[in-house]
Design goal:
It is built from 20 helices and 16 strands. The protein is of the alpha/beta class. It is globular and about 75 Å long.
Length: 601
Amino acid sequence: IWESLPKAMAALRRFQRRLRQRPTQLKPDPVELERGVIIERVLDCYVASEGRSYTKKMSMSCVHQRKAIKKRKGGQSAKERKFVVRAIAPQGGPDARTGDTSFGLSVRARRRRNKMFSSVDTVSGEVISAWGVLVGMYLHTKQMHIDTTQSAGTMVSTMHARRRSSIMMHKMQQALQATAGAVFDKALALMQELGSERRDMEHRMWHEGGALHLLFGSDPINTLTLLAAGARKLVASQPMVVKASAPCRIFGDTHGQLRDLLLLFHAFGAPEPGGDTDFVFNGDFVDRGRHQLELIGVLFAMKVLMPDKVWLVRGNHEDRAMNERYGFTKACLRLLGEAGLDVLASIQDVFDYLPMACVVEEMVLCLHGGLGSARWRLEELRQVKRPLTSDMLRKDEYHWLAEMLWSDPIEDDGKDSGQAVFGVHESPRGGKFNKFGWNVTKAFCARNGLGLVVRAHECKADGPGFDVMHENMLIRVFSARDYGEQHRNDGASLLVRRCDEEDSESGSAPEGGLISVRAQVLQSWRRFRTERPAANQACARQPPPPAAEGARQGRQLQQVAKPAREGLQPQRREPSLRRSRSRSPGSSGSSRSRSSSCGRA
């Protein structure tokens, strides 16, 4: 009996693993069926220290819901009714569809509003929001008819733009394919090496001297400049609002943490040339992290190799002033010397041409910050001209674009602040930016025919890397785990896919089909050390396995790429690994914690 017990336990573990990998049937409610987007109630989690992944139910702490409405006896007072009228149609402008209650109000009135909005939320918030949604749906239907009549004129210019794009790609593909292919191959080799190590560490301990030469060869300056030039031409030829198709993986802030991005690739899937999965990176690629230059170079290489499958969306850190303040400029000088300023300028030129948003399957809007006061439409955003420099974003006429990079949503339960959850309010980031409530998101989605908004820009300590709010119409995703030296947050990405008929228990799907969104989480290294120190110590004592040589993942490149690949073989940096193994499990490396902007990215 004792001899057969280990075999029985192993069979039980295999059965449990197969059970976890079975696709769960989706049970959409009527609201999700009408919207066309389902947020799955389960998530995938990967533990790098153990090299295993598992599926678990989504914790309710990730979902923010408003309190139940309790109607007060006797209804509203005359003072409250008067205030609600001012909230619907404030003096100075007809902005009832946005819910901007601060427009046209004095300072004294704003203070009274914050005290009285609790009663407004419970009594009139639902009515105001329902009215705004109905008006928004009518405006969207009317705009669709206008777009149909104008499509004939825009079709010719679109055809010319596509023709210019195809000619440009044909001319530069021979010069860029070898370089981009070699860089991407080395990134895949590092990914395979990380997956085979069965040990975890903080991203700052991994290749502490930098992985620049491992990825870009002996001449990283010319390689990065060439990749930046190719990426700039590609993003400039694509529209301001790009379109992605499902299946699609959406990533939040990465902030130079290349190791976390490679682990997410290893756990849940990496880009493949010729594959059917799109990859959307939702801004903030640089600043603060250890491998900022390496990460942006890998993203540019993927964009050059897969221009119609990899989408880079602009964030608030794709900005010259932010790069100067938060470390990207110093990283270029530290790694490349004086020539780093030329590389920095070429990379920042790409930032000026990046799209501001991405729409997945015409239902899911991806943008970095938020909706702001939501006084804009997607059609207006598509007509913005580029380059869009940092100085232009600071002008009043482009303030609505800056709000897309900087604004934040108000959580439905109001835990993040003591202010009301309805309407538009001043942001703690500064008086020139706004925080928006659930009714603003609902009205904006109705006006633009959307079912979900995905944003990044915000990190929460000890959080799972994502949050669901605004009646399941807005998701926050953050991909850089253990961010800022004091947070113990997980890193996450989102998988967006079309639902098959057998996946859903409801046969009454909308005409366009159902879209499901599933969170995929990379567990925090610091939290794992705290919760399971013994297991982590045993894992740290294991010697690292040999590096995976030449990971290719079945990708066939042209003959012209072979000489470049030969000169970029991965090299293993043993001193840095030995130094990381010598750390004790109790030393988390957070003694040098510095102040950050309250978990904001």
